[in-house]
Amino acid sequence: MKESNNRQLRRASVKKMKQILILCVLVALSQCIRIPLIKGKTARQRLQEQGLWEEYRKKYPYAPWVKFDQTGQESMTNDADLSYYGAITIGTPPQSFTVLMDTGSSNLWVPSVYCSSQACQNHDQFNPQQSSTFQTNNESISIAYGTGSMTGFTGYDTVTVGGISVQNQIFGLSETEAPFMASMTPDGILGLAYQSISSDDATPVFDNMMSQGLVSQDLFSVYLSSNEQEGSMLFLGEIDSSYYTGSINWIPLSSESYYQITMDSVTINGQVVGCNGGCQAIVDTGTSLIVGPTSDISNLNSYLGAQTDQYGDSIVSCSSIQSMPSVTFNINGYAFTIPPSSFVTQGYSGCQTGFSGGNFGSSFSWILGDVFIRNWYTIFNRENSSVGLAPVA
């Protein structure tokens, strides 16, 4: 019954997103290319409601750095706190899916009717035989996870995102999926990073949008709401000034793979607590927390009065939030300060900070995930290889 209710809620959300998109198209035609992002329940929240969270996190520990191991495969981890997802369609006639819009990966994939995993059974599945425009190249795909993998094959079809239809878009159709995906709301993932990190060198959706002239500018931007279930938005080829205040601070990319930038330091009350002497960071909508080297995060959390438990959660007293200092990320000469009301969340078992530690084997050591992005209207500019950040309105 719960599974049926979850699917009904998901389809209702998709229907509402489609209605918004239709209105958008009627108002401004192709210039209004925006995808409403629903802030749904996280896997952590779903499992806590069912009393399964403790068992889950023992079995599948949070390891965000696994997503970025360069092993020739696109890697991902079981991030139980991801909550933003949008609607797309694939095929002719269109089949609907919800996907995580992920700037930390580059491939598009969804469950297929050939998948026998539990994670596929409680999500929408693509049926190639019901699409007159589907073509397959019979090539396999394997995307590694921290606790398993997605395996399947690739095909080509019409993919529609925000009213934009991309012809002959390559995408993955899963045949097996890691168990933790069963607890996540989105059906699949739409990667928005560069093709250089794409599994099997598959051309990403946004790259095809640019090359086919489907967006007015070679950029996209994101607004993530903090508390409301609705209001978050992905803008394709567009910057909407009504979602931010002040001016946009532009930061050049230091690498065109992920959206990687150079960070100067992380400070609390002017005291350096992390990234001493500079470091590399990526801006990633597909990571829920702010992640840094274990030693830096431990130092940062100690300044906040937080303790890291055996599962990596940074626990803090809920009564101390008002007296807790803000954390500042110094990037390209700009100071991006996040207050405790933004980086502390209250859950079933108390309060925790949005900072997590891990040791990366990549070219960067920090991930600025959703906890960071919620504070800034974020622009991913492919035309001049930069990221723009402005205070959210």
What features would you describe in this structure?
18% of the residues lie in helices and 37% in strands. The chain is built from eight helices and 26 strands. The chain has helices at residues 2-28, 43-49, 53-59, 118-121, 205-211, 294-304, 340-343, 370-373, and strands at residues 34-39, 84-90, 95-102, 108-111, 135-144, 149-161, 164-176, 188-191, 219-223, 232-236, 249-252, 255-256, 259-268, 271-274, 279-283, 290-292, 307-308, 314-316, 327-331, 334-338, 344-347, 350-353, 355-357, 366-368, 376-381, 386-391. The strands form three sheets. Strands 12, 13, 14, 15, 16, 19, 20, 23 and 24 form a nine-stranded mixed β-sheet that branches. The protein has a six-stranded mixed β-barrel with strand order 2-3-8-4-7-6. It has a four-stranded antiparallel β-sheet with strand order 17-18-22-21. Strand 17 (307-308) and strand 18 form a beta hairpin. It starts with a helix and ends with a strand.
Which structural category fits the helices and strands?
alpha+beta
Helix count from the secondary structure assignment: 8
Query: How many extended strands?
Result: 26
Average predicted local confidence, pLDDT: 83
Radius of gyration: 20 Å
Low-confidence stretches: 1-6, 12-31, 70-78
Helix content: 10-25%
Strand content: 35-45%
- Biggest beta sheet attributes: 9 strands, mixed
Brief characterization of the structure:
The chain is an alpha+beta fold and 393 residues long. Helix content is 18%, strand content 37%. The chain is built from eight helices and 26 strands.
